[in-house]
Amino acid sequence: MAETVSTPEVAHAIGHQHGHHMSRRAELIEILEAVLLAIVAVATAWSGYQTARWDGRQARLYGASTKDRALSNKAATRSGQEELYDTSTFSFWLQAKAQGDREAAQLFERRFRPEYRPAFAAWLATDPFRNPKAPAGPILMPQYHNAQAAKAQAYDTRATTAFERGTHARETGDKYLRNTVLLATVLFLTALAQKFKLEGVRIGLFGVSAVLLVIALYFVVAYPRA
Description:
The protein is mainly α. It has one domain (34-222). It has 5 helices and no strands. It is rod-shaped and about 115 Å long.
């Protein structure tokens, strides 16, 4: 005679199997959440590290730019002083030459700066006293060179380059900072999901967190590293 199985026993068995299935799914969700949190922790630490590195690079580059700008101003001031000296000495030489004071003219000529002499010689070669097309003075000759002016230009170029690189470093640091905020949002949503007992809500929040994490990880890989 076959044994009969009562309805309560069947319901209990089905409920036990369903509960076991639900328990395994909840465990799987918890494992996935733990893995996600671990990835978020590593990515957040990396983004924070890169933010600090780029901020440090920005500070160094801005400091170098300020230093080079100061050196450029110093060299430009010295260049202006030397140019004024060249012009003044030449004016005194020209005056002595016009007055026929050969001794005074030779004295002022000996006072010319070494950099000025090639331009002065080239200017004399144009026969300036009889040639109306000759330049007004040696300072207008192509041979005229002022090392301080060239140095000022070089420092100014370096300062501009360092400033632009510092600005780029600041922008990159800001990108990593925004990515850190995005990762913090992922962390918040994941922690919030763990507060819900309804699996549908929990899975939905986990899905949103996972999508945001993928976006944040893409930025981590795409951004330049210091």
